[in-house]
């Protein structure tokens, strides 16, 4: 109170030439930075200087923020409100921060998020940190609404790690067309659906480590293919290596170059498969479709056997021919001689026949 009074008096006397600093905060004009760290503050302090670009109000007891909290702070680009007890973010809370690029709300207890909570002027927001920020999974519907209505078309990075999310509402990220980095690690996601990641046209990195994925069926694989070529992190999921996981295992093998932790992915269940590399999981290791595999093998074996038998028969035939080569030669000569005799006989008969016919023709011509 005394600080404030002094500040007001000084301001009145000097026309506020000297920039001031709110009580319990540290201000550095040279660094354009104000820090109010772990000072038991219950609300956003007033009197933050206009030069401030980096504003840290962290580790306090602030439970509510609204549009009146950040007036006249045109130059703030980085705002951290992490480690407070913020439970509600009202509409247009950050609209006054005309240059805001990075907003850190990590380690809070957001239960109510208004649809236009994150609107920043000129779509200036680039980074939003909501790590360990949601009170419980129920807040995810509010979050989905605010991601939709807050004009976050320029957002590059969104951190939603450590939030106990069980599922992601369909198309939750569909308005984040510039997003490059999405962190979803340490949630409880069990599946990836059709349109979970739709709209993420520029995604470069997706972190799904430490979730509850037991496998990823075709639908999810298609979804992950739809955000190609974003790199993926899939480690520390409880993969269940039993029949049915082969499409996923094959996909992993095929997509290795974009899965940063492909080499580290291991089965968690069943116990007999624990620690087996997911890349080594194939049809044979799982013993699935054993009958088909057996049939294929039998068929192949029978083809090989047939080939060998035919080859053997052929060899014997050639060998017999070789042994009888003299007899065959003789028979060929005999046949030749016989042919010759037949030919000679025919020739002779032709000559006999042709005589009278010729004379007959000439007689006809004379008439
Ligand atoms: C923001 O910074 C600019 C340049 O540093 C300065 O001229 C302006 O007065 C500052 N805005 C406020 C509200 O103090
Ligand atoms: C402010 O945010 C930017 C990203 O928008 C980051 O690169 C920079 O390090 C941050 N500065 C401070 C002081 O935290
Ligand atoms: C909005 O952004 C554009 C370009 O990024 C800039 O030229 C313009 O001054 C900004 N307007 C406001 C009100 O900050
Ligand atoms: C978000 O905040 C948490 C905790 O404050 C920090 O560990 C994490 O690195 C931040 N995320 C990003 C993307 O900066
Ligand atoms: C989340 O917290 C609210 C308020 O305490 C409660 O009504 C709701 O059931 C909780 N949701 C979950 C999923 O625990
Ligand atoms: C995951 O998040 C929970 C809280 O949701 C936390 O207690 C736990 O330490 C986190 N695990 C890791 C490895 O960060
Ligand atoms: C997934 O998308 C296809 C069309 O792309 C649609 O036919 C199918 O019903 C969808 N499945 C779910 C579970 O939404
Ligand atoms: C799995 O591998 C890790 C490290 O490679 C090892 O610490 C752990 O004991 C192994 N677990 C089992 C059940 O083999
Ligand atoms: C994985 O892919 C490689 C080629 O990239 C192939 O040689 C190998 O047999 C495949 N492994 C399995 C189990 O399919």
TrEMBL record:
Keyword Secreted on entry: no
Name of protein: Trophoblast glycoprotein 1b
Record domain LRRCT: where: 237-289
GO-annotated biological processes: anterior/posterior pattern specification; convergent extension involved in axis elongation; dorsal/ventral axis specification; negative regulation of canonical Wnt signaling pathway; positive regulation of non-canonical Wnt signaling pathway
Annotated ranges, domain LRRNT: 20-54
Pfam families in UniProt: LRR_1, LRR_8
Alphabetical keyword list: Leucine-rich repeat, Membrane, Repeat, Signal, Transmembrane, Transmembrane helix
Record PANTHER family: LP06937P, TROPHOBLAST GLYCOPROTEIN A-RELATED
InterPro entries, alphabetized: Cys-rich_flank_reg_C (IPR000483), Leu-rich_rpt (IPR001611), Leu-rich_rpt_typical-subtyp (IPR003591), LRR_dom_sf (IPR032675), LRRNT (IPR000372), Wnt_signaling_inhibitor (IPR052286)
Signal peptide interval: 1-19
Keyword Cytoplasm recorded: no
TM annotation in the entry: 303-323
GO cellular component, one term: plasma membrane
Top-level taxon: Eukaryota
